[in-house]
UniProtKB/TrEMBL annotation:
Record gene name: cadA_1
EC number: 7.2.2.12
Major localization class: membrane
Catalytic activity: Zn(2+)(in) + ATP + H2O = Zn(2+)(out) + ADP + phosphate + H(+)
Lineage: Bacteria, Pseudomonadati, Planctomycetota, Planctomycetia, Pirellulales
InterPro entries given in the database record: ATPase_P-typ_cyto_dom_N (IPR023299), ATPase_P-typ_P_site (IPR018303), ATPase_P-typ_TM_dom_sf (IPR023298), ATPase_P-typ_transduc_dom_A_sf (IPR008250), ATPase_P-type_domA (IPR059000), Cation_Transport_ATPase_IB (IPR051014), HAD-like_sf (IPR036412), HAD_sf (IPR023214)
Protein name per UniProt: P-type Zn(2+) transporter
Pfam families in alphabetical order: E1-E2_ATPase, Hydrolase
GO cellular component terms, A-Z: plasma membrane
Keywords: ATP-binding, Cell membrane, Membrane, Metal-binding, Nucleotide-binding, Translocase, Transmembrane, Transmembrane helix
GO-annotated molecular function: ATP binding; ATP hydrolysis activity; cadmium ion transmembrane transporter activity; metal ion binding; P-type zinc transporter activity
Residue spans crossing the bilayer: 80-100, 106-127, 139-156, 162-180, 309-332, 344-369, 649-669, 675-697
Keyword Metal-binding among record annotations: yes
Keyword flag Mitochondrion: no
Length: 704
């Protein structure tokens, strides 16, 4: 399956079977059809028979098989030979006919034989499909072209018939060639061929293996300059690793013992040893490639539009062709041959090829270029949304800020000791994975403060945590959590308020009856945040909104530094969802960007959920519509530019392809169009539109 016509053909058979085309995914570039049979009574054998009815043949998909491309190139060679024969024979016929000019239209038998051979060679791969399309009364491009050629023969226009057959064959060849080129370009963009894994055996020897033979937990040696074969963790050595293949980061990242490594990234000058943590087909890179491959089957809105349009356009133009053939001769005594010719030209114009091929090529190129840049777009559906965003909501901690808060001050209330405060806080926080927790535990460790064991540890989302030490309950959390615990006094309130106004995050610590004091922390804004928000405004995003669980004072301080338009602070996770719903109501197209860990519900509620720093986090990749693999906020304006550019190119292509058609309809009515010009224009349009779409592959960082 390598053209839009075949997609339409398959759909006609399969959609009635499945009830909806949502269950079908077409990947024209790889000749892959995926069918979702879940919760249906349809069996895969039924699908196979239905496919056979179309005249195509299906085989089970085998990921990474080279046979598909072998077969495609074999078919291409065959097609090339037939096209060449068609061309030479047509030319021979033309020369012969020119040598016997006396017999003008009814050329010599030898010339006619040449033309006939040219026509047969040109239509050879097409005729069976055309026949099937005629029998099932579902006209397609093959039938249109065959009728046009037969019509030309009937008119005695042998030369035109041969030219149409040849050009049609040539255009199919060029189309499959340029799609092949697109396929290869995208493959090289994503294919980071599996390297060799040097496995350290128990004996200490090193053995070379293919990555898919390596068991999880093996120790691998990675020499300087080599590609890392599997995901894993550094166990020995240190080195700078070029992670651009996975995260799109241009600068190498320093890796030390315990750090995460990704398959497909390239080791710098150090020798590393790592422990593998995934199987070869489940590495982050393998999943990215799989997702980009499948992403295309979730079609973009403009693709759906084009398909719908083509489904109406073709029958209408065909009807027009029939009317043009019948009405002028019958009603106005026009010459039959004249109007037959014109109606044949219309038939050629009815072919929607350039129009239908343009969008998928652009979308796939855009998805591949984004993946190469560390932006994983999980469906053609999501490629157009960034360009339409009216507002973007952002999480504060870890998105706008670096997400590694540090302790500013530890404030014990009178009658309490700093040491007690910190030891209890650290005892609780050692069980928590909140960014604040890490800082507090570190501070206790730093002061060599003993950390007692905690039982019954429990977190209260967006507020704090509690647990018991030696049978006594302790808690810590936000100002709001203190109020919730009903232990606030006016003096405490004023102190906390002052710290919050100064832009600090506060964590209050206490037990059932009293408050021990509080810890203030500060998180640093990312250095790129301010510029990114300016760029977002420049791309047309009118409102940048902060949604945070932190207090209003800190939220406003960060918002001021970053240039945020609107702040919603002290939100519980459920409040974030509600705020998101309100924003979607108000601005229609709203994205939410977060780390995907505690804001997954809000991400899911946004028009577009974007997860940041997703390379290490499976959860983030799964929940988001778009995952920024690196921790780099500046990918966000890049994404919007990329989406706008994709949309622009798709629109250019549609306008151009339609423009050519309209031009030719006008030329035909006025009697100025010829068959061969119509088909040559269609072919040229297809090629231009594909080439234009492939421009999206060259989408690097600076190319906004
Ligand atoms: N484990 C914890 N330790 C200490 N304080 C906590 C903890 N969990 C929540 N809090 C308190 O609750 C507040 C809100 O927490 P939440 O996790 O909702 O937001 P955040 O992650 O700090 O910010 P953002 O919503 O921008 O990511 C924190 O500022 C903190 O004061
Ligand atoms: Zn208060």
């Amino acid at each position: 399956m390598d053209c839009a016509e075949e997609v339409a053909l398959l759909k006609r058979e399969l959609v009635p079977l499945l009830g909806s085309d949502e269950r079908l995914g077409f990947d024209v570039l790889r000749g892959k059809l995926s069918v979702d049979l879940s919760q249906t009574s349809v069996r895969s054998a039924d699908i196979m028979t239905a496919i056979q009815r179309t005249g195509l043949r299906a085989e089970g998909w085998n990921e990474g098989a080279s046979e598909t491309s072998d077969r495609i190139s074999k078919e291409q060679r065959q097609r090339a030979i037939f096209t060449a024969v068609s061309g030479t024979m047509g030319l021979a016929g033309f020369i012969l006919a020119s040598l016997w000019p006396t017999i003008a239209n009814t050329a010599s038998p030898i010339a006619i034989t040449c033309y006939l051979l040219s026509i047969l060679a040109g239509l050879y791969p097409v005729l069976p499909k055309a026949w099937r399309s005629a029998v099932t009364r579902r006209p397609d491009m093959n039938l249109l072209m065959s009728v046009a050629v037969l019509g030309a023969i009937a008119l005695g226009e042998w030369f035109e018939g041969a030219t149409v057959a040849f050009l049609f064959s040539l255009s199919l060849l060029l189309e499959s060639w340029s799609i092949g080129r697109a396929r290869r370009a995208i493959a090289t963009l994503l294919d980071l061929s599996p390297p060799i894994a040097h496995v350290r055996l128990a004996s200490g020897d090193v053995q070379d293996m293919r990555p898919d033979e390596v068991t999880i937990g093996s120790i691998l040696v990675i020499r300087p300059g080599e590609k890392i074969p599997l995901d894993g963790r550094v166990t020995k050595g240190a080195s700078d690793v070029d992670q651009s293949a996975v995260t799109g980061e241009s600068l190498p990242v320093n890796k030390q013992s315990g750090d995460e490594l990704f398959a497909g990234t390239v080791n710098g000058d150090g020798l590393l040893e790592m422990e593998s943590t995934t199987a070869a087909d489940n590495t982050t890179l393998a999943r990215i490639i799989r997702m980009v491959g499948d992403a295309h089957s979730k079609r973009a809105p403009s693709e759906k539009w084009v398909e719908k349009f083509a489904a109406i356009y073709t029958p209408i133009v065909m009807l027009l062709a029939i009317l043009m053939f019948l009405i002028p001769p019958l009603a106005f005594a026009g010459a039959w041959s004249d109007w037959l010719y014109r109606s044949l030209v219309l038939l050629v114009i009815a072919c929607p090829c350039a129009l239908v091929i343009s969008t998928p090529v652009s979308v796939v190129a855009a998805l591949a270029a984004a993946a190469r840049n560390g932006v994983l777009i999980k469906g053609g559906v999501h490629i157009e949304t960034p360009a339409r965003l009216k507002a973007i909501a952002m999480d504060k901690t870890g998105t706008l800020t670096q997400g590694t808060p540090t302790i500013v001050d530890v404030v014990p209330f009178p009658g309490h000791e700093r040491v007690d405060l910190l030891s209890r806080a650290a005892a609780l926080e050692i069980n928590s994975n909140h960014p604040l927790a890490r800082a507090i535990v570190e501070e206790a460790n730093h002061g060599k403060i003993a950390i007692p064991a905690v039982e019954h540890f429990q977190t209260t989302q967006g507020m704090g945590a509690s647990g018991s030490i030696d049978g006594k309950t302790y808690w810590l959390g936000s100002h709001r959590y203190l109020v919730h615990r009903k232990l606030e006094t006016p003096e405490i309130h004023d102190q906390l308020e002052a710290a919050q106004q100064a832009g600090r995050t506060v964590v209050v610590v206490g037990d059932e009856t009293q408050v021990y004091g509080f810890i203030t922390l500060a998180d640093v804004i990312r250095k790129e945040s301010r510029q990114v928000i300016q760029q977002l405004h420049a791309t047309g995003v009118e409102h940048v909104v902060m949604l945070t669980g932190d207090n209003a004072g800190t939220a406003n301080a960060i918002a001021d530094q970053a240039g945020i338009d609107e702040v919603h602070a002290e939100l519980l996770p459920a409040d974030k969802v509600a705020a998101m719903e309100m924003l979607v109501q108000r601005y229609d197209q709203v994205a939410m960007i977060g780390d995907g860990v505690n804001d997954a519900p809000a991400l899911a509620r946004a028009s577009l959920g974007i997860a940041m720093g997703a390379a290490g986090s499976d959860a983030a990749i799964e929940t988001a519509d778009i995952a920024l693999m690196s921790d780099d906020l500046s990918k966000l304006p890049w994404l919007i530019h990329h989406s706008q550019r994709t949309l622009r190119i798709i629109r250019q292509n549609i306008t151009f392809a339609l423009g050519i058609k309209i031009l030719f309809v006008i030329l035909t009515f006025s009697g100025h169009a010829s068959l061969w010009a119509a088909i040559a224009a269609d072919m040229g349009a297809s090629l231009l539109v594909i080439a234009n779409g492939l421009r999206l592959l060259r989408a690097d960082h600076n190319n906004c």
